[in-house]
Amino acid sequence: MYDFTYHKAASLDDAAKLLASAVDAKPIAGGQSLLPMMKFRLASPSDLVDLGTIAGLDRIEAEGGTLTLGAMCRHGAVCTSEVVQKTLPALAHLAGLIGDPAVRHRGTLGGSLANNDPTADYPAAAVSLGATIVTSKREIAAEDFFTGLFETALEPDEIVVAARFPVPEKAAYEKFRNPASRYAMVGVFVAKFPDVVRVAVTGAGASGVFRVPSFEEALSKDFSADALKGLSISTDGLAGDIHASAEYRAHLVGVMARRAVAAANG
Amino acid sequence: MSATGIGASVRRKEDFRFVTGRGQYTADIARPGQAHLYFVRSTHAHAKILRIHAGHASRMPGVIAVLTGEDFAAGKLGSLVCGWLIHSKDGTPMKMAPHPALPVDRVRHVGEPVVAVIAERADQARDAAEAISIDYEELPSVVDPAKAQAPDAPQIHEVAPNNTIYQWQLGDPAATEAAFARAASVTAIDLVNNRLIPNAMETRAAVAEYEPGTEQFTLWNTSQNPHVARLVLSAFVGIAPEHRLRVIAPDVGGGFGSKIFIYPEELVALWAAKTVRRPVKWTSERSEAFVADAHGRDHVTRAELAFDAEGKILGLKVKTIANLGAFMSTFSSSVPTYLYATLLSGQYDIPAIFCEVDAVYTNTVPVDAYRGAGRPEATFVVERLMEVSARRLGVDPAELRRKNFVKNFPHQTPVIMNYDAGDYAASLDKALALADYAGFPQRKREAAGRGKLRGIGLSAYIEACGIAPSQAVGSLGAGVGLWESAEVRVNPTGTVEVLTGSHSHGQGHETTFAQLVSHRLGIPIDNIAVVHGDTDKVQFGMGTYGSRSGAVGMSAISKALDKVETKAKKVAAHLMEASEADIVFEDGKFTVAGTDKAVTFGEVALNAYIAHKFSGAELEPGLKEGAFYDPVNFTFPAGCHVCEVEIDPETGRTDVVNFTAVDDFGNVINPMIVEGQVHGGIVQGIGQALMEACVYDESGQLVTGSYNDYRMPRAGDFPPLVVDTTVTPCPSNPLGIKGCGEAGAIAAPAAVMNAVTDALGTEDIAMPATPLAVWTVLQRQAHREAAE
Ligand SMILES: Cc1cc2nc3c(=O)[nH]c(=O)nc-3n(C[C@H](O)[C@H](O)[C@H](O)COP(=O)(O)OP(=O)(O)OC[C@H]3O[C@@H](n4cnc5c(N)ncnc54)[C@H](O)[C@@H]3O)c2cc1C
Fold this sequence. Notes:
The structure holds two protein chains of two kinds. By secondary structure, chain A is of the alpha+beta class. Helix content of chain A is about 35%, strand content about 25%. Chain A starts with a strand and ends with a helix. The mean pLDDT of chain B is about 95. The chains are: A alpha+beta, B alpha+beta.
């Protein structure tokens, strides 16, 4: 790790100012992605602006068919929150599948979204549920937010404040872990709304989270695991590595999608 | 049995300090004025070093010195060596290439240390290391042992044509050929024993200090055998004469073999400490450990087993290529030879065996002993062969084993070993009962109903522990004797220090060794301290590996205790004015037979030192005795492990759903610790079978160089393990102990793969059976079925 200057942000404005004023400042939330990168010397921010000291960024609210989670909601808090468990149990389940207890105790929703790791879990939920990412500057639809491998629509001094998740009729997340890292090798989030079904896949895509229109179409007509029988996705654009070939990932997308639908149907 | 004596599950005395963070590991050692060492490591598998650009780095803040292979060569120190001389079948000695701690002109594996940077602070050393650039001329490389001997393979060391270190053989080729000629059936299999990366919880570290006034070196080191480290560093490398080098291995957090060896890093630390006249500290980062700690296994094998018409084994033929990596590590040569081929008879009466082993250099991290060392590889060969044979012959795998078990002891195998005691049917029966083997078909049907493929597999393993009778290993090429030493020092107040040449790095010696003393002397376990790991305190010792510390280390203590008891009886006789012959020692009390006269152990201890009751002419004061124990034979722990797996055919995921281990370790000192040792071993064995893939790409880069890609076993991966024992006491040592440290890692891989192949209905899958590997097999089967 290289030397850096550490700042405690007093407020969102303060954080934004600190971010704008330094050469290469970065917000730090749970530090569960950023700190390992810094220890490996793969990231070397000049300044870190700690968001953990800003009041109100960890709220959890369900109102009028929307679940709003503050950016600083720790994975562990989302997983164990009664509100989340009641309104969007699939999301609580997802949070409980992230990393290990230590990671869940520190890692945050905002950090995960901003990091946009192609194997992270939250991006699948955000896209499938059609979430809105609320930032210090604007509101961004999830699908516009994730722009590529570790890339988002965020500007350097823009901070994720919260995410708003529309509450679906049914939803479920099925994750096939990478055996080594335990991130998603393939994770499929399925959400059924009155007017639309969305299927979002993480872990499999070479450039991050993506939707599967053919699955969505079939499920819109018949929201059952059987509706997906015989459907498969192409290996184009899928990642391949020592843990899973693109073919295997494509296969797992089908399996995890069917299981997710079955789980959503209870 | 007393509450703290032999056979009691005494809680580990050392754990309080470990779990409360009060252990003193090498990384916790801070010497006044210490500087920090960081290595620039090779990024190439094979390359010429053209130029090292270090000028800028040497002027960076805090930098004390930048040392290269040329500097090291100027120091005229010896090469690192492999201490076990193996001869090829043509009589030529193994082709050991020089292994300088820092290379001068060529790198041979990714991760090889090339430049040493010493700075005031660890981060400054690392900053400077980053600023060093090296011009390399890349050379072609080879990582696959099966390709290393090809005529067009790149030549790694001049001394070893075709990268072949030795071509060794054991057994009787003619008798084996004759057996195969008579055979009613032959089972042939091709096996890969996958390379493993050890990953002890504590990474390696060294702190080296040089005292110019006395020319005395001190090395704190994460070592399993500090005395052997001192011997090699002085006698072979020549860093200092033995009496001017003190090696201390303080608390060590796991080794599994990887901390037996003498590595470049600690040698460079010692040399640098003298060069810069500052204590020098090196602590391996986890990423470094992946490319700097000796790896394990890495065999490619073809094996054939011949049967007569009744299913009795006639003969076994094995041909193995063993990958020793880029350099020969300290004991690397012995692992695929005398620790491997000598166990190929397994638990079976096999009349003829012939084994050939080629050891090869490749552009990979050196390979050496790793938990089990050779014996897991042997067990994998024998137990996969037995299972596959049973399937092909259409007989129950348990019964095929039973039919071929060695039943009479001692039993001389065709491959050197003389099994002294055992009851293989007893462990098999108990394991089958505990695993409800008979109920398996029912469970398989039930699993099928849930869409799962269920399989069961056995592994009836044997290992040779209690390493080793010195004369025997000497005749086989070992450079050292493998006895153990002990000293029992009784203090005037009756407390006891036991000095042992064994070293504990997770085994719990501070508890088990104290149990032996408590048992023998009848004193509370808290009055006993176990001292180990310091060459200034313990005169000499061979360290801990090969499950030797119980059978050999404790036998040495037992021998020293015999002497203490003899001397104490003399003191007691003087105290009670009785004849020495009438003194009886029991439960910590000395009594005069047939009287009610008695003195306690404490009284005897005190009187041994105050020496008021006897004259110097009659008896020497004091109560302190030492012993060297050289075993008369190896010990032969054996047992039967049963694994049951369930495979999800949709995803290829394999779950171990039941695992049963019944082991015969001879007499057990502490059942709880033994159970823990077995658990750890099984988990590593299952890790090898299902999880741990060490992958090099074609260019020699280690793809699995972090936990992101190297799949370690985790507690949550396992069902509760059913662990039990049977006991045939070992006749070859005074305590009847066989050793338990490696059994799990030796037995488990074959049990798991036998279960996986049973579930899949094909033998065509290699370790580790990852989800991808299993899914690929299932895909192939589906395509084949579709084609039919
Ligand atoms: C061992 C381990 C296992 C893991 N397993 C998983 C897993 O299975 N699934 C999974 O999804 N993740 C996993 N993670 C990652 C974990 O979920 C992280 O917590 C998460 O990716 C980042 O969140 P954080 O709060 O730790 O962010 P940090 O590490 O603090 O920051 C990450 C990045 O986001 C930026 N950032 C943080 N907060 C904000 C914000 N509010 N606005 C703008 N930018 C921000 C930072 O500047 C940085 O670039 C794992 C991590 C570890 C160490």
